[in-house]
Amino acid sequence: MSRIQARFEALAARGRKALIPFVTAGDPYPETTVALMLAMAEAGADVIELGVPFSDPMADGPVIQRAGERALKQGIGLTQVLAYVAAFRLSNDTTPIVLMGYANPVERYGVERFAVDAKAAGVDGVLIVDYPPEECEDFAASLKRQQIDLIFLLAPTSTQARMKRIGELASGYVYYVALKGVTGAGHLDQAAVAERLPVIRRHVSVPVGVGFGIRDGATARAVADVSDAVVIGSRLVELLETQARDNVAATGASFIREIRAALDE
């Protein structure tokens, strides 16, 4: 059983919902990433999505674009991201880590090599934004050989045929993008999310996490009422980008504790 599946099953047995923060690897400072990851796990993060910096992040809004640009300027690429995960695993062998990014860095690295090295580092899942299910059979096979979960996005515009196809391939969880647009955009329509999730669950057997537009405890709690997990990224990255080095981990932990408390009310 994967760490991701084990974590979701343990949470379900306790009647709790998963909290999944997203941060960009190497941002705001390369030397703070591992400490930040450890602090968030200690504060109540159930899964950590670690963003792989990329120069053309088509699904990301200004906040996460800036984070990626800062990380790239400091030389952070896929090799460094895998090293962060390996360093995290020296202290934490239980919290699942999901790499989230784009196809270009993976293909430049080499798909099979990436899968092998990701497994060795301790990666549990991978979400590649621009690998639709119709075009990633080789990638899916490479990850499956390494027992790494392949996670897909679903959107308000996803057809039921697309949901069915993703339901056949996905493992770990699926990530429902609650808004049309990029990360950090718009106003979360909680009623629309509540209406959409039962449709998704008719086609998808793995847990469903919801992200985009969740910025505080109130919206996290509302989404948790209808989903299996809450994914929160832009607001966290926005908080971190103004912090001094010595305060990054503490700021991240404080934010996670706040959201965790709201989810557990």
Number of domains: 1
Into which percentage range does the β-strand content fall?
5-15%
Helix content: 40-55%
From the N-terminal CA to the C-terminal CA, the straight-line distance is 29 Å
Q: Overall mean pLDDT score? A: 93
The tally of strands reads: 9
> What is the N-to-C succession of helices and strands?
HEHEHHEHHEHEEHEHEHEHH
* Overall CATH architecture: Alpha-Beta Barrel
CA gyration radius, whole angstroms: 17 Å
Runs in which pLDDT lies below 50 for 5 or more consecutive residues are 181-185
Structural class: alpha/beta
Strand order of the largest sheet: 5-4-3-2-1-9-8-7-6
CATH class wording: Alpha Beta
Can you walk me through this structure?
The protein is α/β, with parallel strands linked by helices and 265 residues long. It has one domain: Aldolase class I (TIM Barrel, Alpha-Beta Barrel). Helix content is 48%, strand content 14%. The chain has helices spanning 3-13, 33-43, 62-73, 78-89, 103-109, 111-121, 137-145, 160-169, 190-201, 217-224, 234-240, 248-264; strands spanning 18-24, 48-51, 97-101, 125-128, 149-150, 153-154, 174-177, 208-211, 229-232. A 9-stranded parallel sheet has the order 5-4-3-2-1-9-8-7-6. Strand 7, helix 9 and strand 8 (208-211) form a beta-alpha-beta unit. It is globular. The chain starts with a helix and ends with a helix. Residues 181-185 have low confidence and may be disordered.
